[in-house]
Amino acid sequence: MATVKSLVEEWLRLDKNPITRAEIEKLYAEGNIDELEKRLRNRISFGTAGLRSSMEAGFSRMNDLTVIQASQGLCMYLLDTIPNAIVKGVVIGYDHRHNSETFARLSAAAFLSKGFKVYFYRKLVHTPLVPYGVKKLKAACGIMITASHNPKQDNGYKVYWENACQIIPPQDDGIRDAISNNLEPWVWDPNFVDNNELCIDNINEISVAYFEELKALSCHREDNAASNLKFVYTALHGVGTPAAKRIFETFSLKSPIHTKEQADPDPDFSTVTFPNPEEGKGTLALAMKTADEVGARVIFANDPDADRFSVSEKQKNDKWTIFSGNQIGVMLASIVLNNYKASGKPLEKLAMLSTTVSSRMLAKIAKIEGFYFEETLTGFKWLGNAAIDLEKKGYEVLFAYEEAIGFMIGDVVRDKDGINALGTFAELVVQLDKRGMNISEYLDELFKKYGYFVTENSYFICHSLPTINKIFDKIRYGENPYPYKYKLSYPTTLANHKINYIRDLTIGYDTSTIDNRPTLPVTDSSQMITFGLENGCIGTLRTSGTEPKIKYYIELSGSDKEKVTKELSNIVKGVADELLEPEKYGLGYRGE
After folding, report:
1. Where's the Alpha-D-phosphohexomutase alpha/beta/alpha domain (predicted)?
2. 467: helix, coil or strand?
3. Count of beta carbons in the 10 Å neighbourhood of residue 323
4. Domain count of the fold of the chain
5. Which of 66, 325, 503, 582 is spaced 20 to 30 Å from 220 by Cα?
6. For the segment 269-319, what is each residue's pLDDT rounded down to a tens digit?
7. What was the pLDDT predicted at 548?
């Protein structure tokens, strides 16, 4: 095994950035071996989410060197796997985070040095414009430099394949291997993209085409133009404001009222701790203040790279309701369904998708209404690729969503798109207002028609991977799994309810199939266990690929909302007390 000294020497040999060089030199001079081990011992892992980490020196972090190495590996993998990849080119975009433009420029330089055509967006863009550009330009791949809704110290490197979807296995493995074989920097010059004839900036052309395609999704522009409804919008210090203004114009909606403190890009996210609309009223406090001041009852929010979308509504008792991703999802699905019915096309040709941790309500709607529904693993890398596969089978896949406020409407982008969702939902609110309804009343109408689906989704914080693995092994193998780790011993009850179904996508075990093998993909690189109770409750525990969290998703449905809610609360308590045991394992609660 390499010594810390040799790891430091290798870093200093490769790194040409004086700031990150100085970080490692200082740590070494101080004798901070533990921190050097964390930074240098293991390489940042390239997975289906690409790269994401804090921006610091070290092989395990996001910095100039690791971005260059990732780009070189991706470049060589494209050359090996996609014919004419050099001519097809790559699309590269970036957001407003610290170092995003530099990382994008260094990425572009790697491809340009090998003769690739590079479509380099020279201004801040929201993430969906990268996969849209890949689709429109028929490029070999796309790269978006963003950490989405992560804290300010993080950045990321998201990759889209030639089908304009996020990469899935085995592409990630192939890219990872290619990175390992191309660690020596080819070129280290962020200005290499300037005045390079292979570097094309066509962001204006791509943006025009994107909004023209979105325009076709608007069905009520006359009503939109006539409405005097007030909407408040927040970009949460991200890049969404220009796109939000433009989608309102495209749908003939009156411009939203912007939360001025959060309207402009700010890489320090100065008014929020976590720039994620899912975090609740603390993150949306300024938007609610703005809404109160101007007399608006609806708030829309995008996350910083504007691929996620959130809705809040002020109720008659002056309290705010923040709708969950599942609730927004079924309301958007109802719009797509109603529009498809109005087209006169056969419903059996319509397909919708959601993930295994999302609400089962969409599956129930599909069963009642007669369209096709399919479930995938979590993440739009799976949803987008599944949509393309179903298209090949003759389906029109016009909606997909995941509970983490990600929505795909139509086929403009085979990825989540918070701007598309923003225009579509605003149009729904206008139509509801014509009927004299608010959003909550419409959601209740859907519940009465299809059943009350009550969900509880949250997480515990855990920064220790061994602890996380110990918790899941305990669930899987019992209290004392070692050394007899391979004898399965899942719990048989939870919160006094019998468990009659287990699916473990980490080890590949599913009690609902004849051979006990899951139909969904299995991966041992993350933890994911789903259980079903005798009362119909479905719960999933999983780890996050980008954050130190153990997430849980619990859902129960029935005809009596109060009874379902009470019973679900007991089950959620059981998940904590019986399965996760936060006090025993030192887990932090959400927001801590």
Report:
1. 44-182, 209-314, 325-450
2. helix
3. 18
4. 5
5. 325
6. 999 988 999 887 889 999 999 999 999 999 999 999 999 999 999 999 999
7. 86
pLDDT digits (tens, 9 = 90+) for 145-173: 999 999 999 999 999 999 999 999 899 99
Q: Are residues 403 and 439 in the same domain?
A: yes
Beta strands 396-402; 350-355: pairing state: parallel
Q: Encoding tokens for residue 358? A: 């999302």
**Distance (Å, whole) CA 89 – CA 199:** 10
Q: CATH no. for residue 277?
A: 3.40.120.10
Name the one residue in this structure whose structure tokens are 């993930």.
355
* CB-count exposure of residue 513 (10 Å: 0-12, 13-18, 19+): exposed
Same domain, residue pair 446 and 457: no
pLDDT computed for residue 481 by the predictor:
60
* Interatomic CA distance for residues 147 and 565, integer angstroms: 35
Q: Which is it for strands 452-461 and 406-409: parallel, antiparallel or unpaired?
A: unpaired
Tell me whether residue 148 is one of the annotated catalytic residues.
yes
Cα–Cα dist 383/351, whole Å: 12
Distances in Å between the Cα of 218 and the Cα atoms of 242, 425, 433 are 19, 10, 17
Range of the domain at 14: 1-41
- At 295 the pLDDT is 96
Spatial CA neighbour of 230 closest among 243, 217, 248? 248
Q: Given 415, 450, 485, which residue is the final one in a domain?
A: 450
Q: For each successive 10 residues of the chain (592 residues), what is the average pLDDT?
A: 95 98 98 96 84 96 98 98 97 98 98 98 97 98 96 96 94 94 97 95 96 97 97 98 98 97 98 90 94 97 98 96 97 97 95 96 97 95 97 98 97 97 98 97 96 92 92 88 70 94 94 92 90 95 86 93 93 94 88 46
Looking at 254, 279, 314, which one is the last position of a domain? 314
Give the total residue count for the chain. 592
Q: 233, 409 in Cβ contact below 8 A?
A: no
Count of beta carbons in the 10 Å neighbourhood of residue 60: 19
CATH number of the structural domain spanning residue 456: 3.30.530
Same domain, 77 and 144: yes
Across the beta sheet with 309-314, the strand order is: 257-258, 231-234, 298-302, 309-314, 320-322
Q: What angle do CA 239, 354, 477 make, to 5 degrees?
A: 110
pLDDT at 592: 43
Instruction: Please report, for residues 8, 259, 299, 408, the alpha-carbon distance to residue 289 in angstroms, rounded to integers and kept in the order given.
Output: 50, 9, 11, 30
d(CA 152, CA 305) in angstroms, rounded, equals 13
Among candidate residues 60, 148, 324, 358, the one labeled active-site is: 148
* Two structure tokens written together for 212: 């023209």
15 closest CA partner among 50, 52, 63, 51: 63
Query: Taking the mean position of all CA atoms in its chain, how far away is CA 122?
Result: 24
